What we know:
Layout: E1 4-5, H1 8-28, E2 35-41, H2 45-61, E3 64-70, H3 76-88, E4 94-97, H4 107-113, H5 125-132, H6 141-152, E5 161-165, H7 172-180, E6 188-192, H8 199-204, E7 208-211, E8 229-232, E9 236-239, E10 247-250, H9 255-258, E11 264-265, H10 272-288
Parallel strand pairs: 1-11, 2-3, 2-4, 5-6, 5-7, 7-8, 8-11
Antiparallel strand pairs: 9-10
Helix pairs in contact: 1-10, 2-10, 6-7, 6-10
Bound molecules: guanine (GUN).
Residues 96-99, 121, 141-142, 170, 276 line the site of guanine.
Amino acid sequence: MEYQLIDxxxxxxxxxxxxxxxxxxxxxxxxxxxxxxAILVGHDGGSETYVKNKVIACxxxxxxxxxxxxxxxxxxxxxxxxxxxxxxxxxxDGFIVQLPLPKHIDEQKIIMAIDYRKDVDGFHxxxxxxxxxxxxxxxxxTPLGILTLLQHYHIETSGKKCVILGRSNIVxxxxxxxxxxxxxxxxxxxxxxxxxxxxxxxCQEADIIIAAIGRPDFVxxxxxxxxxxVIDVGTTRVPDPTxxxxxxxNGDVKFDEVAPLCSYITPVxxxxxxxxxxxxxxNTLAAGKKEYYK
Length: 294
Ligand code: GUN
């Protein structure tokens, strides 16, 4: 059976283009450009790349962007002061604090300090809670990007058996919430994690597998049913001396052996990654338009 590759890069590019057109219309009518700010702490290679790509995406969408940088030894007080400043800055529509933060900083405390009306990452408990009961809110970018991809490719999710691998606050938990809700996935959802007993059997029964555990090549052919849809959220950097950078991004799915079994599958890179950033742009546009909160 011939599988179809889900092209996240092309889908994200088309969506960013339509956002850019809407921004043009807003500005032509005398409105403001949406403005996203990002706080980046330290010099983690992955975080540097993500934030750089977010700034580039802002340019592509016609948004204003501001990058606030701190060294890894920044204090919690300094970060809280920065969050407070961005909360009060009327020119900033939304902002993110790139995670993970250094160990001496209480991540949850920083997230809670963000004004939920500017929380375009959808990490604040108010947005998480509203999402889980189906109220309008900012939805976490990776799960939103995956939902958008499934819709874009007209992949039926209603009534399907969806297995999610991973239970993180950023991906696994919100993904499970969205896939189970009637207005989004409307699927039967199982969440598996490091202590799940029959993970392999659960996967074998799944119509849709969403892998977000950060373990390279974890999902193998013996775990996947014929005709399944496989979404790979993994982006682990593994050493690769043939690359100029010295590494490559490796997904959670052993692509070469799993793909031939699938009806649809996302590649890494070029699958979920670009959609995550594109969803952040969608949320920023919504923040600029005060779509969810006044
Ligand atoms: N780290 C990994 N994913 C994300 C994300 O979506 N937002 C932020 N702020 N940090 C992340």
